[in-house]
């Protein structure tokens, strides 16, 4: 067990920290609604992680991956959702540019994105990405914890992955809170919104094309 856990933790950290749809969405919502928007988004992402981890432990993830049509349907739906979020971000960017002469250099963040919507976006972004479910399926069998039955092993590994994810998002949101004033600057908001919107469209397109 001591030799397996460090390797598992390293693999988890590589997956958690590497930028992907969840991080792009979180940064976009942080630019739009500040730390509260980022926190609501991260809460939705974490709920999605927990649901998918539970599904992997229960064996539902394997069923999903073995069903080609169902997997592809979820993959395309998830890709469409990411592209939709990216397009909305770019449209909102265009609208802000049209009103740029009326806005102050520093605009208060928050009202443009209700917490419930940010939470829902984080949850759906995570649940509709079948690669996350496939990650659970591919990762867990690679590690063995002697003296424990397989279901208990997978439950422990899933809980550890969720704990590491939660730690990462707490640290990330804490860091965003330290630059809250900087995030509220109109130029910074436009830059982050534009880059994250383009990233969401690119990630959605990649998910649709290379499932």
TrEMBL record:
Question: Source species, please?
Answer: Saccharopolyspora griseoalba
Q: Name one Pfam family in it.
A: LysE
Alphabetically sorted, this entry's keywords are: Cell membrane, Membrane, Transmembrane, Transmembrane helix
Tell me where on the tree of life, at the top rank, the source sits. Answer: Bacteria
Transmembrane regions: 6-27, 39-64, 70-91, 123-143, 155-179
Is Phosphoprotein found in the keyword set? Answer: no
* Annotated localization: Cell membrane
> What is the recorded membrane topology of this protein?
Multi-pass membrane protein
Spell out the protein name for this chain. Answer: LysE family translocator
Read off the lineage from the record. Answer: Bacteria, Bacillati, Actinomycetota, Actinomycetes, Pseudonocardiales
